[in-house]
Amino acid sequence: MLNGMPLVQWVVDRVRPQVDVLAVSGGNRAGLSLPIIADQVRNAGPLSALCSILAWAEQKNLPLVTTFSCDTPFIPHDIVDGLRRALQDRDCAIASRAGATHPTCALWKTKAREKIETAFAAGVRSLRDAMDYVSSCQADFAAVRDGPGDDPFFNINSPSDMVLAQAWLERRRQAE
């Protein structure tokens, strides 16, 4: 919970105006009435989830899929457009900022599914390692100043991260 709201709701609220279809990967999330995309292979990491997401999108005839992690509540309000501008003829566009890539925040062509499944079958489990199997580019979000440390990709992985996020929100609220 960040500021009384589940982290995933923060992401949903930022992403919903940017996409036509919204779903949640993994298990059911209390309070969200969105389609759930179950992992085809459970407990096999983020690449398994991506395989399931791309297969789901292919069944829905969706040519593009944007992914986000639920622990990045400050992602840019224009992230989908920024990723789309970068994508061009590549399989995926990955968000980056200050030299750091954020492969959980990416735009994927659904037709990259076979390449991702090949990576998964080869034992790859991380999104970073899967980049060796696809053509990718980076979408730079250096100009976006949001979140603790002005980092829109600040992710909350620990209680101390949550304290930083809460303090940043409070400072922002007081400045308004």
Structure description:
By secondary structure, this protein is of the alpha/beta class. The protein has a single domain (7-143), classed as Spore Coat Polysaccharide Biosynthesis Protein SpsA, Chain A (Alpha-Beta Complex). It is 35% helix and 16% strand. It has helices at residues 7-15, 46-59, 79-87, 113-121, 127-130, 159-175, and strands at residues 24-25, 36-37, 64-67, 92-97, 100-109, 136-140. The strands form two sheets. Strands 3-5-4-6 form a four-stranded mixed sheet, with helices on both faces. Strands 1-2 form a two-stranded parallel sheet. Helix 2 runs antiparallel to helix 4. The chain is globular. The chain starts with 6 loop residues before the first helix and ends with a helix. The mean pLDDT is 92.
Per-chain topology:
Elements: H1 7-15, E1 24-25, E2 36-37, H2 46-59, E3 64-67, H3 79-87, E4 92-97, E5 100-109, H4 113-121, H5 127-130, E6 136-140, H6 159-175
Parallel strand pairs: 1-2, 4-6
Antiparallel strand pairs: 3-5, 4-5
Helix pairs in contact: 2-4
